[in-house]
Amino acid sequence: MDNYTTSCVKLLSFDEIYNTSIKPKLEAIDIFLKENTAPFHVYEVANVLEIETHELSTLMETFDITNLDAVNFFTIVLGASSEICKLISRQWRFAKENTYTPEMIAEIYKLNLHKVRIAFADLGTDQITTMELTEIFKRIHLTVF
Q: To which H or E segment does residue 59 belong?
């Protein structure tokens, strides 16, 4: 590889990506909901959900929401276009599950199914709990530019 390629391309575990890119966004949403009282301000909700205020206003009109509170906040999440909202929506599809399969993990986090299956095989299992996600994430490596 040339100097440009080696300086611009990294191989990272999904655990590193999750901890630096996804987890802080989920925590920001959690903190926002815990520290603010309804009705929430449109600009603050748009900011924490990483969507434009116009998109939020459109969703509020679509779902006939006049004031943003904790309940309809999640209605907005389900309809919003940001990556963090899409991830949360995918997670909710499996909210009642006690364990996850490779297919579920690949779908929720938009990961290569083959890589996820290899990570499960490394742990010698075909299902994991939420507590074991980190161990799976550490075994999945992605190229980052």
A: helix 53-62
